[in-house]
Write a structure and sequence with these properties.
Number of strands: 7
CATH class: Mainly Beta
Order of helices and strands: HEEEEEEE
Strand order of the largest sheet: 1-2-7-6
Shape: rod-shaped
Helix content: under 10%
CATH topology: Immunoglobulin-like
Distance between the termini: 49 Å
Radius of gyration: 22 Å
Number of helices: 1
Largest sheet: 4 strands, antiparallel
Structural class: mainly beta
Number of domains: 1
CATH architecture: Sandwich
Length: 141
């Protein structure tokens, strides 16, 4: 179970029962699906892992706008073949878009992404917090 701060910070834009679609709907084939995402946290980072096999790195786009991180992809593929007086032309289009709130304690200038073996890993480094001085001497008046 995610800590409360992470549930609030990394909640996807989603409006339940609003036609069961994402907040940012896309006009795509209903057979396409949204990539699964795992969210984890350690002392220094929040990490998003998206399973998106078969997508070329050049078709991926990651943007930040204020407190929103958006991951999207759009790929088009066309094939054309002519044989024995017949023409065959096929095309395929796939896309997705996922958006997440960025926690306040993330250093937006140091966000990094890596794509390997069908897994997109996005690291959101936390800002260094000042250590509070837990001990102090109190003057007697």
């Amino acid at each position: 179970m995610l800590p409360t701060i992470m549930r609030r910070s990394f909640r996807p834009f989603y409006m339940p029962n609003f036609f069961d679609d994402d907040f940012f709907p896309t006009l795509t084939n209903r057979t396409s699906s949204m990539p699964a995402v795992n969210i984890r946290e350690d002392e220094k980072n929040y990490v998003l892992d998206l399973a998106i096999p078969g997508i070329d790195k050049k078709d991926l786009k990651i943007d930040t706008n204020e407190d929103v991180l958006t991951i999207s992809s759009e790929a088009k593929n066309e094939t054309s073949e002519e044989r024995d007086g017949y023409k065959k032309k096929e095309f395929n289009y796939s896309s997705f878009c996922r958006s997440f709130y960025i926690p306040e304690n993330v250093n937006r200038d140091r966000i990094e992404a890596n794509y390997k073996d069908g897994i997109l890993t996005i690291s959101l480094p936390k800002m260094a917090e000042e250590k509070k001085n837990l001990s102090r001497q109190i003057a007697i008046s």
